[in-house]
Specification:
The structure is a homotetramer of 192-residue chains. Chain A is an all-alpha fold. Helix content of chain A is 74%, strand content 0%. Chains in contact: A-B, C-D. Chains A and B meet through α8 and α9 of A and α8 and α9 of B. The first copy, chain A, binds a DNA duplex (21 and 21 nucleotides) through residues 1, 3-4, 24-26, 34-42, 45-46.
Amino acid sequence: MIRKQTIITTAIKLFARQGFDGTTTLQIATEAGVTEPLIYYHFKGKDDLFTHILGEVFGSYFIRLEALEGPTKNEFEKIERIFALHFQFVEDMPDETLLIVSACPAKLRDPENICAQNIARQRKLLIGILMNSLQTGIRTGEFCKVPTEATANLLLGLINGLVRQRSFKMETLEEMRATAVDFCRRSLLATA
Amino acid sequence: MIRKQTIITTAIKLFARQGFDGTTTLQIATEAGVTEPLIYYHFKGKDDLFTHILGEVFGSYFIRLEALEGPTKNEFEKIERIFALHFQFVEDMPDETLLIVSACPAKLRDPENICAQNIARQRKLLIGILMNSLQTGIRTGEFCKVPTEATANLLLGLINGLVRQRSFKMETLEEMRATAVDFCRRSLLATA
Amino acid sequence: MIRKQTIITTAIKLFARQGFDGTTTLQIATEAGVTEPLIYYHFKGKDDLFTHILGEVFGSYFIRLEALEGPTKNEFEKIERIFALHFQFVEDMPDETLLIVSACPAKLRDPENICAQNIARQRKLLIGILMNSLQTGIRTGEFCKVPTEATANLLLGLINGLVRQRSFKMETLEEMRATAVDFCRRSLLATA
Amino acid sequence: MIRKQTIITTAIKLFARQGFDGTTTLQIATEAGVTEPLIYYHFKGKDDLFTHILGEVFGSYFIRLEALEGPTKNEFEKIERIFALHFQFVEDMPDETLLIVSACPAKLRDPENICAQNIARQRKLLIGILMNSLQTGIRTGEFCKVPTEATANLLLGLINGLVRQRSFKMETLEEMRATAVDFCRRSLLATA
DNA sequence: GATGAATGAGTGTTCATTCAT
DNA sequence: TATGAATGAACACTCATTCAT
């Protein structure tokens, strides 16, 4: 049972760095110190292994995302929290993050597939939270008047872009996070 | 000779949508309406085809980047131009863009390789321009005091994130561009 | 112990319908509601399971065959009894019958093997009985003059052919049996 | 192109002797003196190779069957011709015959499949011819009154049984054929 | 008796690539 | 230029079998 976890961990690392198609089951097995058939004992196949991993990763991601709810003293704090969450996620699990921000392999991209659904759900959830915050903030006068949908997309793009940079080579995360939050604050806040 | 171009065009589309490892030479040949050996007549192999494509794409990308130089009435206009350039690039060649913002296939990731070098060069160039602008702008009082390197990275991340969103599904580019530029303007400009 | 029998019964069904090579131990185990290693607890391996089954089936077959001996009012009745026996066998155990009339899997076809030996013994026994009957019948004037060996082979072929048809889809066995017996009677009997 | 035929010939031999599941593509390739991928260059896969072969074999079989039509001086001659045809087929192509009288591999047994369809067609055709002959013969008084359907099935079973025996080990075919025809003649003819 | 975990040896299949023409 | 035929190497996956428990 401990070896199943080793397979998963190894697969995450390899899928993240080489992509699904660039990773072979033999490579996963060898690097995990097991034999290939063991992968097939625990999973139906390479696709299933990938799907399982993406499910787990998105699972812990969504848990964090839901834990975000709760009262804040203003709307910007909500946005700040989303930044914090993603930077924390990259720091905690850099390889897993890459899987989340990467596209599914072509063969798993059909909308019926759970992988594609997870990715769609993530996007929808984030856009929902962001738009909600922006609308409320604009109404209360906390934010200056910005186009909500486009700005929500922009913030999402910014998060993805940063997270992606981060996954490749680890720099000083904290400075990056602070800079990004300040950047957005100056841009959004209506300084009377 | 026209068929060589067909091979290239087809390969760009497939590499962009399915990745390097997820695309087979047979698929490229079939979709291009030629036979596989013809690919090997025009290119040394699959790697060479990919390298050639990335070279071409980065070529036209760098041409645009160099065309950016020239006097501007202020520093923010330089930044604005960079946004415009990338949004235009996505619009003109959506598939090519994906190749630029995507990671190289694992096997071509070694720093000696021209693919990795192109990507590194792109990053260095953009960061260079951005940092230069930011420093000048801060010195002249056009921009408020921001950490230059982190902000340059942030802007690069934002551009990559947006461009990546754009490549997946085409929305109203113009609104997105305007929103992004305004967002950055508010954030950077020192409105005394 | 009851589970050993379940394994056997399931294996008979699957071997009969899919052949030895087309049946996996996992399939047998699953369909029998046990786990694979249990098969290996009760049998040395897949070959042994098959051999065991063929032994059992031929066992009960040979018992019936031996029970055939005994006085009859004429020679044709002996032949009639052989038909009856085989039709009864199909009716009682359709799957087992298929195993008997089918060829051994390639790997068990070597003449030293008990499977091949059983099949050879069956053939020899039946041919023996049939030739004996034919010779006696011809001598006594009950049968018309037919080449005994060829006719014995013919009758054996007929039986095998019918039994094989029967195993695939169950039709009205009784009519078939009667028709076959009448057919042979008309052909063999010397009607003065 | 000559090697494609070698593959086919080798595959026929091996499929006939070891069954579909008992034969590996590697074995076919090795025995045919080619490499495995060549099989996949000429055929979509193992299934396709088998299907192709069965199609070809049934093709030449059906051609002979259709060539059977034509005037005969009586109905029994028609039946005699069917016997002759099958004995000739075994003699000409013993391996191919085994494929025809054997059941499809389990995976190709679904009624939509062309293999299963060929086998069903063969059976239907033969039963059709035989029943037709029997009915006509009975009406004209050539044959004694036998149940037509059951007798047609019986004759089919006899043919299959003999052909099957023949494919395994070659004995004196001619004697067998003559014996079978005589056997049936005595049984069917109404000797007033 | 019974099983979960594990594997060596293969199985069908695909891939990038080559070569004679 | 272009291709039909061919292949070495690898790939995802399965199989019969084992072993510690």
